[in-house]
Design brief:
There is one protein chain. β6 (79-81) and β7 form a beta hairpin. α1 (27-39) packs across α2 (55-63), α3 (94-108) crosses α4 and α9 (240-249) crosses α10 (264-277). This protein has helices at 27-39, 55-63, 94-108, 127-139, 153-159, 183-188, 208-214, 223-235, 240-249, 264-277, 282-291, and strands at 3-5, 12-14, 16-19, 44-46, 72-77, 79-81, 88-90, 113-118, 143-149, 167-171, 192-196, 254-260. With 298 residues, the protein is α/β, with parallel strands linked by helices.
C-alpha cells in the first residue's frame, strides 16, 4: 500500500483509507475488518462523532487499541445529536468544537487526533471563530492537522484561504466529477482531497449489476441513464472496481480514497481492486471518462 502526503502537513496517509461509518456495530466483526485493513497496509481511518451517536468512534477506538502509533486517525465535528436522539443540529461554535473534541478523544481512547474535520458548513458560519478553535487545538497538540468535509464551493472558498486546513473531503468518482472544478483552488491553498463515495454505493464495483437492480437512479442520473452508463463502462474495462479507484487516484491532489466496508469480503474486494488499479493505464481512463455522457456535474 502506497502513501501520499496530506496537504502541507507532515501526515502521510495510505492511498486507500477505511471509511468507518460502514462498520457494523458488532464489536467483534468491526475489529475483524479493522485488523484486516491494518494487515493490508491501510493506515488512514476516518470516522465522525455523528456516526451511530458516537458508538462508531468507540468501536474504532477499541479496534485500534495497541495500534495507535501506526495509524492516522481522522474524525469530524459540528453536528450535535438532540436530546431526544432522533435528529441533530449544526453547531460550529468554538465552544462546541472544543467540547466535542474531548468527547471524541475519550471515545477513541487516544490523547490526540491526527486530522480533525469540520463536518459540513454554511456561508453564514462564524469562520474566524471556527479557525481560531482549530488553530488553538493544533497549537496545544490535541490535533495534528485539520480540514473540512464539504462539497459546497462557497464554504470551501471561505475556509481554505483563511486557515491552515490541509484537506477537503469530497464525494468524487467516475460518476461525480464536480471536485475537478476545484483542483486548482485546492492546489493554490496547499490542500489535498480525501475522497468519499468513490465506489458510488457499490455501483462502481464488479457487482454493479446487482447494485443497479436495487438502485433508483443515482444523484442526477435516472435509472435508465445510470444503466446505460454503467453498462458501457463495464464493456470498456476488465475491472470496474479497479478502474474506479485508478480514476480518483490518478491526480496527485487526491491523498486517499476513503472506502467503506461492512464485511471482510468487501474490504478484500477493494484491496484486490487497488492492486489491480496499477494495471489500468491513462489511455483506458481517458476512454472511460469520455463514456460518461450523463455526467453528474453537467
Amino acid at each position: 500500500m502506497k502513501s501520499r502526503k496530506l496537504g502541507n502537513s507532515d501526515l502521510n496517509i495510505s492511498e486507500i483509507g477505511l471509511g468507518c461509518m460502514s462498520l457494523p456495530t458488532d464489536e467483534k466483526t468491526a475489529k475483524w475488518i479493522v485488523d484486516a485493513a491494518v494487515d493490508h497496509g491501510i493506515t488512514y481511518f476516518d470516522t465522525a462523532d455523528l456516526y451511530d451517536k458516537g458508538i462508531n468512534e468507540e468501536l474504532v477506538g477499541k479496534a485500534l487499541n495497541g495500534k495507535r502509533k501506526d495509524i492516522i486517525l481522522a474524525t469530524k465535528v459540528g453536528n450535535v445529536w438532540n436530546k431526544e436522539g432522533e435528529g441533530w443540529y449544526w453547531d460550529p461554535s468554538k465552544k462546541n468544537i472544543e467540547h466535542q473534541v474531548k468527547e471524541s478523544l475519550r471515545r477513541l481512547q487516544t490523547d490526540y487526533i491526527d486530522l480533525y474535520q469540520l463536518h459540513g458548513g454554511t456561508i453564514e458560519d462564524p469562520w474566524d471563530e471556527i479557525i481560531e478553535a482549530f488553530d488553538h487545538l493544533k497549537k496545544e497538540g490535541t490535533i495534528r492537522a485539520y480540514g473540512i468535509s464539504s462539497i459546497r464551493p462557497n464554504v470551501i472558498k471561505e475556509f481554505l484561504p483563511k486557515s491552515d486546513a490541509v484537506s477537503v473531503m469530497m464525494q468524487y468518482s467516475l460518476l461525480d466529477r464536480r471536485p475537478e472544478e476545484w483542483f486548482d483552488v485546492l492546489e493554490e491553498n496547499n490542500a489535498s482531497i480525501v475522497t468519499r463515495g468513490s465506489l458510488a454505493k457499490g455501483l462502481l464495483t464488479n457487482e454493479w449489476s446487482n447494485r443497479l437492480a436495487k438502485a433508483n437512479g443515482y444523484q442526477t442520473y435516472s435509472q435508465d441513464e445510470l444503466h446505460a452508463t454503467l453498462e458501457e463502462l463495464a464493456n470498456n474495462t476488465k475491472d470496474v472496481h479497479a478502474a474506479a479507484l485508478a480514476y480518483v487516484l490518478q491526480s496527485p491532489i487526491v491523498a486517499s480514497a476513503v472506502i467503506g466496508a461492512s464485511s471482510k469480503e468487501q474490504l478484500e474486494a477493494t484491496i484486490l481492486a487497488y492492486n489491480n488499479a496499477h494495471s489500468i493505464y491513462a489511455t483506458e481512463l481517458k476512454k472511460l471518462t469520455k463514456i460518461d455522457m450523463y455526467n453528474a456535474h453537467r
